[in-house]
Amino acid sequence: QVQLVESGGGVVQPGKSLRLSCAASGFTFRSFHMHWVRQAPGKGLEWVAIIWYDGVNKYYADSVKGRFTISRDNSKNTLYLQMDSLGAEDTAVYYCARNDYGDYWGQGTLVTVSS
Amino acid sequence: QSALTQPRSVSGSPGQSVTISCTGTSSAYNYVSWYQQHPGEAPKLIIYNVNKRPSGVPDRFSGSNSGNTASLTISGLQAEDEADYYCCSYSGSLAFGGGTKLTVL
C-alpha cells in the first residue's frame, strides 16, 4: 500500500537550517508529482512547494521562496525539503503529499523554530 | 491562485445532512478537492475533481461545483464525521480554504 513517511523535524534556532525527508513506498515514486504542505499549530493547511515527477519543475509559495528548496531522488524514492533561514513563522507540522491533488499524505513531522 | 473561503464552523445532528461551502473556485475548472482531518491526524482526501470519491470513501460524501462555489455535502451524519474539512483548488500549486469545523451534535 502507499506509504509516505516524513522525518527530520525537530527544534531549531531562528536563522538555522533543517532538511526534511519523505520516504515513499508502495507506488512508482518517479511517476508522481509531490508536494510539501505545512500546518502551523491550531491553524489551517498551507501549501509550501511542488516538484514534478522528474524533478525538473519546482514551484514555491511566496512565503518560502528563496529560503526553501524542494528536491527528490527517484533512485531512493525520497522527497526532500531543505529549509534555510528559518523563522518562528515556519513552526508547523510538515506533510508530504502525493499527486496533483494530494491523494495520499504522510503522518507529518513537526518543526519548531525557537531560541 | 485566489484564496478560498469556507465557513468556520457547521453543525448537524446524527442522520442529518450538512453542506460546507467553498467560495472562490470559479477559476479552478474541475480541479477542486476536499480533505477531512481529525485532531492529531494527517488530512485525508475524500473528494477530488469536484465530485469523485477515492476508493473507500463512503458515498455519504459528495461534492459539487456551481459558478464560484464548490460544496461538500455529508448525508446521514455520523459521530465519526466530526472533524475539520478543507477545500482545495489545484493547478500546479494547492490553494486551500481556511477549513471548516464540523460538529456532530
Detailed description of the structure:
The complex is a heterodimer of chains A (115) and B (105). In chain A, the strands form 2 sheets. In chain A, strands 2, 4, 5, 6, 9, 10 and 11 form a 7-stranded mixed sheet that branches. Chain A is globular and about 40 Å long. Helices cover 0% and strands 50% of the residues of chain A. Chain A is mainly β and 115 residues long. Chain B is mainly β. Chain B is built from no helices and 9 strands. Classes of the chains: A mainly beta (115), B mainly beta (105). The interface between A and B is medium-sized, with 20 and 22 residues.
What is the ordering of alpha helices and beta strands of chain A? EEEEEEEEEEE
Structural class of chain B: mainly beta
- Poorly predicted regions of chain A: none
Number of helices of chain A: 0
**Based on DSSP secondary structure assignment, what is the total number of beta strands of chain B?**
9
N-C termini distance of chain B: 35 Å
- The rounded distance between the terminal residues' Cα atoms of chain A is 40 Å
Quaternary organisation of the protein chains: heterodimer
Mean residue pLDDT of chain B: 93
Q: Considering DSSP H and I runs of 4 or more, what fraction of the residues of chain B is helical?
A: under 10%
**Class derived from helix and strand content of chain A:** mainly beta
How would the global form of chain A be characterised?
globular
What would the average pLDDT of chain A be, to the nearest integer? 97
Global morphology of chain B: globular
Q: Please mark out the parts of chain B with pLDDT under 50 across 5 or more consecutive residues, or reply none.
A: none
Strand content of chain B: over 45%
Largest interface: A-B, 20 and 22 residues
Radius of gyration of chain A: 13 Å
Q: What does the largest sheet of chain B look like?
A: 6 strands, mixed
Q: What's the helix count of chain B?
A: 0
Major sheet description of chain A: 7 strands, mixed
